[in-house]
Amino acid sequence: MAEITPVDVQNKQFRRSFRGYHPSEVDEFLDTATKTLDGLIRENEALKEQVGELSERVEQYRGIEDTLQHTLVIAQETADEVRVNARKEAQLILAEARAEAERVKDRSERDLRDIRGRAEDIRAQMLEYVSRSLANTQAQMEILRTAQTELDASSRTSRREESEVEPESGSRREDWEGERDDD
User: Which helix (H) or strand (E) holds 132?
Assistant: First the structure.
């Protein structure tokens, strides 16, 4: 189908016939049709131009939408990856902390056993020292008691001998003093 333009309408020539249309009415109608057709064509062109611009904008928006969707997908994937990595890192940190806590606990228990063992050794050494010191002290006390007993006995004997010696006869006292000097 061939397109009709306003110029085609305006230049259209009709043949005349007897009992035909009034040429002035036809011309008037053709002028109106030409103007209407011309307005519709301009409106159509303007609408086509507007549709083209809108189509371009829609394409731009679709591009932006695609970019946003792609960005959202990447952001979601990145967030998921970060979350997974954070969980892994947290689990690793927790495992390391637990391992370190276990090492510290084992070391503390070992140190405690060592300290208790040393304390027990020191306690045993102290008991042995106290026992020996007590035994030595008791032995020395026994020696001192024996010495005291002997001294007391010797002293009593000396006093008895002195009391048996008569004061006028000094012979016995002199004998005793002589024996004492010989010792």
Answer: helix 23-164
Q: Where are the domains of the chain?
A: 6-12+21-120
Q: How many residues in the chain?
A: 183
What's the whole-number mean pLDDT along residues 130-152? 92
Neighbours of 176 (CB within 10 A): 14
> How far apart are the C-alpha atoms of 117 and 53, rounded to whole Å?
93
Q: How confident is the model over 25-64, as pLDDT tens digits?
A: 888 888 888 888 889 889 999 999 999 999 999 999 999 9
Assigned token pair, 171? 């012979």
The Cβ of residue 182 has, within 10 Å, a number of other Cβ atoms equal to: 6
* Residue 172, pLDDT above cutoff 70: no
The residues, any chain, with a CB within 8 Å of residue 150's CB and separated by 6 or more, are none
Gap between the Cα atoms of 138 and 116, Å rounded: 32
CB-based contact 38:59 (threshold 8 Å)? no
Q: Encoding tokens for residue 43? A: 């409106």
Q: Taking Cα atoms as reference points, which of 73, 79, 78 lies closest to residue 65?
A: 73
Quote the CA–CA distance of 64 and 71 in Å, as a whole number.
10
pTM over 0.70, yes/no = no
